[in-house]
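Q: Now give one record:
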Amino acid sequence: MTTLVVRDPFLATPFRLLDEMFRTGGNGGRVTGFTPLLDVRETEDEYLVMADVPGVKSEDVSIELNDQVLTISGSRAPVETGESQFVERPYGSFVRSLTLPKGVDGERIKAEYLDGVLELHIPKPAAIKPKKIAIRSGSQKQIEK
């Protein structure tokens, strides 16, 4: 099985928990720093990447493939709620990157957006698709002679 690597700059820091706890500091209690959550599934023929991007218009999302690194970026604007605000839903620019296996054909990647979920269908290269190998038993060997 080939592995996709999800790059998240905050996973590399031991201060991620503190960063999450104090994201509201210095901005009047408003939460900022939107990061879409990803699911990556593997089937026999493809990788399926699903990104939760509710409230983001499809035209505000960019998908690029460069040197086997797939990058999803975009932004979600804050919702204007009037003079007094209580905002918990995060907003702002985001970037998520995945390192794809060698041989993935970027021309064959398909993207769909429905109900706030971005789906990327990434066909596997033929070289890494699993192949079934038949096992001959001793009785089959004798029959073939």
